[in-house]
Each structure stands twice: as C-alpha cells, then as structure tokens.
C-alpha cells in the first residue's frame, strides 16, 4: 500500500511579525478623537494631538485599567476616561488632576508611527527596536498626483492566521482554480524584506480585452503594492492596488484593500469613478473567493507540492525572517532568489520589484 502524506501543523507561535503595518488612510485618524485599534493580540489607541501628529499608545491605562480609546484628546495628550490621567504622545503621563507627584513608572508604550502615501503605519517589533531606515515605506507618486484618483479603500475582518494570505504570493495554481484567471507566466523574486510576484494572465474582467500584467511586491510582512496594467471598455487602465493587513490575534486579521486608478482622459469624474468602482468590485470578489477557502481549510506546515507549484516553501522561509529576532535572521531568507513558471509566453516580463527598473 502506498504511504500517504500526513498534514503537519505546529501550534502557532505567540509572536507577531516585525515590520510596518498599514492602518489605512491617515486622514481617518485625524479627527481629534481617539480610535481603538485591536492589533498584535493587544489593544491600542490611535489619536492626533493639537500638534497634528498621530500617536499610537497601548490602550489600557496602567493606573486602573481604563480604556484610553474611550477617553478624550486634550492638547497633545489623551486623557483617560476613568480618573483623567493625561498621557502624551510619547506615552509619558503628563498630568494627574489630583496630585502633583506623577509616579516615575507612569509610562505606557508608544508605538512608532509613520505616514506615507496618505496612509498611516505602525511599527511592530517584539524586541522593541526602532524601525531600520532600509525598510521605510517607499513613496508612491500616484498617491499625490492630480492625474490619479484618490484611494478607494475596503476593510474586512478575516478569521484565520495571516500566513494563509501570504501564501498567495507563491500559490500560482490557485489563480486559475479559485479566481478563474489562467496564468500564462508566473514568477517570484525574493530579496531582503521584499517578495515580488509577477504574473501575466487573462484579465480579471471577463469583458476586458487582452492580457493583464501584474507586479506585486510585499515590502515587509504586511504591506503589498501591485502595479497593474490592463484594459477596460477599450481604455488602457493603469492602477495600483494596496493589499495590507494587520493581525488582530493569532487567528484573525484585518485585511485592507485599496486602489488608485489613473484618471482616463475624456471621461467625466463620474465615469472615472464608475470605472474604479467596477475594478474595486472585481478585486473584492477575488478576496471573497480566497476567504471562502480559508474559512474551511486547515493550516498545513508541510504542503505536498508537485511540479509547477510555486515556491511555497521558499516563500515561507522568507516570511519567517519577520518572526525571529533581528540578529537571528538566516541569510538564506534574505538572499535574492528567482523562480519562474512560464506557460509559453514569448515575451517574459522583467524580473524586478515594484518601484525598480
Ligand atoms: S484608570 Fe486611567 S486614570 Fe485611572
Ligand atoms: Fe487568492
């Protein structure tokens, strides 16, 4: 009797990836109100003080546990709703209404924050090191260009571990099976904190003509930018997708999907908006197709792969660099590696990351 392959899955380690995590549009947090953020297995508060800077602090007050996201922003501080202790953006208690003697330990963790491409990011690092400059979020010129529309953004809560989402980078075979997009050409490029997928396939839109080429790069564990070129209704459409997530717990994450589309000349604002909406709906459908699988599948550490599957094992080694201490990252997880699966396309795209030539 032939030996069967048993699925193995170790318990998920209680650790969250080191890296920048996108929280969606920065403007959404700039209303002078505190915002609750459940992320990395904990509870945080996001707020902008009168200095115009957005801060993220641990969300529970160390005095007696008040929820700072239920408090109020006053000046540069967030004031706890329970006994009105004030906490500055640096996490240091700046005032207590009924004493002058602030305990020296009255400090909550302040999380590194950055704003880029009109998006807000928070830095997670279990070792509490500062974000190294080489993993800074690259600037995306279309986010600031008049020739492009504004971000259109959608958010969902997904109830599984975020590794399932990352597997998509290398899972060539699921695009035809799950998303009904046969792939003519597929490649992965891994290098440092970047992992790129290059794909040429039929367009996502059944009414669209020709081929769709996408180049998608993860910058770190949770922020992916995709450049797409395709056609819709006879027009060439250039678009940029944002796919980012933030783990809520080990078994849930918030998935954000955003889109920028270059305005089509000759179309009114309204017509442009409709093109974008149609595109967004198609991509959204794609995510639902993945979710339908994730809702029922099990975690597999030792997938049984075959010839012409993508490099899932290498992808996971790359991804593992974000789950070990910075000085324990194995070289093999950061070396430049190329994988190509060509289904007979004569012209193969260049193998590089998004924002590189
Ligand atoms: S619990 Fe926050 S001030 Fe007392
Ligand atoms: Fe997918």
What does this structure look like?
The protein has four helices and 19 strands. The protein has 357 residues and is mostly beta strands. The chain folds into two domains: 26-111, Rieske [2Fe-2S] iron-sulphur domain (Rieske Iron-sulfur Protein); 144-342, Naphthalene 1,2-dioxygenase Alpha Subunit, Chain A, domain 1, CATH 3.90.380.10. It has an eight-stranded antiparallel β-sheet. Strand 10 (113-116) and strand 11 (119-124) form a beta hairpin. The chain is globular. The mean pLDDT is 92. Residues 168, 174, 178-179, 290 line the site of fe (ii) ion.
Lay out the secondary structure:
Layout: E1 19-25, E2 35-39, E3 42-48, E4 54-58, E5 72-74, E6 77-79, E7 86-88, E8 93-95, E9 110-111, E10 113-116, E11 119-124, E12 152-158, H1 163-167, H2 173-177, E13 183-191, E14 194-202, E15 211-219, E16 223-232, E17 235-249, E18 252-261, H3 269-294, H4 312-320, E19 337-342
Antiparallel strand pairs: 1-11, 2-3, 3-4, 4-9, 5-6, 6-7, 7-8, 10-11, 12-18, 13-14, 13-19, 14-15, 15-16, 16-17, 17-18
Bound molecules: FE2/S2 (inorganic) cluster and fe (ii) ion.
Index terms:
357 residues; mainly beta; Rieske Iron-sulfur Protein; eight-stranded antiparallel beta sheet; 13% helix; binds FE2/S2 (inorganic) cluster; binds fe (ii) ion
